[in-house]
Write a structure and sequence with these properties.
Blueprint lengths: L1 H19 L5 H19 L5 H10 L3 H23 L42 H19 L5 H7 L13 H6 L2 H15 L13 H14 L6 H26 L5 H32 L12
Helix pairs in contact: 1-2, 1-3, 1-4, 8-9, 8-11, 10-11
Keywords: Membrane, Transmembrane, Transmembrane helix
Length: 302
Amino acid sequence: MIERADQLVLEFVSRVADAAHGRLRPEQRLDFVQRLRAGVERERGGSEDARYVAKVIAGFGTPADLIDREVRRLAAAQQAAQQAADPASRQDARPVGAGDTAVFPVVADDAEPHHGAHPEDGDRRLPPGVIYGRRIATERITRRADRPAPLLRLRRAAMAGGNPMATGGRDARTIFLNNRRETMALALLVVAGLLVPFRLPTLAIFPIPAIVWAAAALTLLACQGWSFSDRLIGLTVPVLAYAVGGVLLGAARSEGGTVQAFMVSFHNVSGVLFILGTAAAVSWLAFRLLDPPHGENGNNRR
């Protein structure tokens, strides 16, 4: 329950940080989520009750409302700073209203090139060494953008659930550490699939992979990090692949139409199908843990 309460806070701050993209500058966004995290912890008062923490989070409002208020606050602060710098502008100034849209200045890395200057050289007032270095850097960045980095999609999937601004730079490793029971269930499913190709002795009448899968099923049913439908998918996909897929493919591959031929064919293909079904179930559950459905919070997943 302690881990669940902490996870609720991290998920809320992460959603607010996502809503701030495109509306706040990076340094403003980082400062805001840090102050918001401190405010939630202050209102939480050290409580580890997930229900109470969820009620505290609900009192702060939606991420969109929080970002709207922060944008208006920054706009008012910017207007006050301009008035302090230019007292003559106070006569025409008016306070920032709730319906006003704050416009932040465009942040440019370099000055615009002078009229007649070559676009690659930028400002001619820069030293020749800086111009040459900028040209080389632009060419390298362009070449890197043309060829995608290896395992780019896999890294993006692993980081889908970990916003580095909301979690202090932590990534998928932290998500799995904060969901130890879910991680244990995934590990048991993987072990059950990996044990299938080995000829292991049975315990009573039960194969060892089936016993490991049963332990994974009990652990999975006790998890709080997935919805019931996701847990049901994780449990049924390997079994359906083993039973239904094994029967269909075994019947298609059996020769002679005898029961003995069918059982031999079923035994040959069902293990492989169980491994494939387990891999699909583990992939789905890991994806749901890293990137839970939008709008799903701790209240409907406890």
